[in-house]
Amino acid sequence: MKDLERYSRQILFKPVGREGQERLLKSSAVIVGMGALGTVISNHLVRSGVGHVRIIDRDLVELSNLQRQTLYDEEDARENLPKVIAAEKKLKKINSEVKVEAIIADLTLDNAEDLLTGFDVIVDGTDNFMARYLINDVAVKHGIPWVYGGAVSSRGMFAVIKPGETPCYRCLFPSVPAGLGETCDSIGVLSPITDIIGSFEAVEALKLLVGAESNPNLEQMDIWYNSFLQLDVSQGRNPECPTCVHHEYEFLDRSSDQQINFASLCGRNTIQINPRQKAKQDLEKLASILKNNGEVKGNPFLLRFMPDDEITMVIFQDGRVLVHGTNDTVKAKTYYARYLGS
Question: What residue intervals traverse the membrane (predicted)?
Answer without folding.
Answer: none
